[in-house]
Inverse folding.
C-alpha cells in the first residue's frame, strides 16, 4: 500500500525559505507525477505544481518565481522550496500522487511568523 | 487560468434526501482527442486531506459509495448524492485538470438539515 507523508518545519520566519519533503513508501516515485497543493486556514485548495522523477516540473504562475520542486529517486522523496515567504504562505501543505490527486498525504501545517 | 465556480456555497439537506452541487468552468474542459471531461470532485472533512470521489466528470473512484455520482460535460458539471448520510457532511470541491494551473472551485459546505 503506497503512502505519502509530508515533513518539514512548522514555523518559518517572514522572508525566509519554506522547505518541505514528501516521502513515498510502499511504491516508487518513478511511476507517477507528484503534486503539491496548499490550503490556507479556512480557505480553499491551491495547486502549487508537480514534479516527475526525471526532473520535469510545472508550476502555478502565481508562485513560479518563488517555487522549486525536485525529486530524489535514491531517497524516494520529492521536495518543495518556497522562497521569500509572507503571511499569505501560511497554509496546510499537501503532497499528492497524480492528477487528479488520488493519494494524498495528511498534510503539514506551516505558519509564517516572526 | 480556468475558473471553477461552484453553487451553492452551502447546502443543508435532510438525511435520506438528495443533495446536488453544481460547478461551472470558465472554459470547456472537454478534451476533443479523447472525449473526456477533465473534472474531478473531492470530499474534505475537517482536519483531513481531500478525498477523490469522481474523476473524468462521472467515473466513481473504487470504494466510493454509489450514492455519489457525477455528470455534465463541457463547462457545466454536477455532483449528486442520492440519499444523504450523516457521514457525508463535508466540504465538496470540483477540480479541473484539463490545463495548468490546475484549479478548484471555492467549495460547497454540505450539512444536515
Amino acid at each position: 500500500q503506497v503512502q505519502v507523508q509530508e515533513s518539514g518545519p512548522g514555523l518559518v520566519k517572514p522572508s525566509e525559505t519554506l522547505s518541505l519533503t514528501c516521502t513515498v513508501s510502499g511504491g516508487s516515485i518513478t511511476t507517477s507525477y507528484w503534486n503539491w497543493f496548499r490550503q490556507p486556514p479556512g480557505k480553499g485548495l491551491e495547486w502549487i505544481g508537480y514534479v516527475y522523477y526525471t526532473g520535469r516540473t510545472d508550476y502555478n504562475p502565481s508562485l513560479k518565481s518563488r517555487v522549486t520542486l525536485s525529486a530524489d529517486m535514491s531517497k524516494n522523496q520529492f521536495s518543495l522550496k518556497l522562497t521569500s515567504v509572507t503571511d499569505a504562505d501560511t497554509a496546510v501543505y499537501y503532497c499528492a500522487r497524480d492528477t487528479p490527486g488520488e493519494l494524498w498525504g495528511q498534510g503539514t501545517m506551516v505558519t509564517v511568523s516572526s | 487560468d480556468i475558473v471553477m465556480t461552484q453553487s451553492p456555497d452551502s447546502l443543508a439537506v435532510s438525511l435520506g434526501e438528495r443533495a446536488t452541487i453544481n460547478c461551472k468552468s470558465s472554459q470547456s474542459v472537454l478534451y476533443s482527442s479523447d472525449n473526456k471531461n477533465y473534472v474531478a470532485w473531492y470530499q474534505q472533512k475537517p482536519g483531513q486531506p481531500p478525498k477523490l470521489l469522481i474523476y473524468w466528470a462521472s467515473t466513481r473512484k473504487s470504494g466510493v459509495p454509489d450514492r455519489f455520482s457525477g455528470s455534465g460535460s463541457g463547462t457545466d458539471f454536477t455532483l449528486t448524492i442520492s440519499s444523504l448520510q450523516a457521514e457525508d457532511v463535508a466540504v465538496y470541491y470540483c477540480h479541473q485538470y484539463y490545463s495548468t494551473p490546475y484549479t478548484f472551485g471555492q467549495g460547497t459546505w454540505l450539512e444536515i438539515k
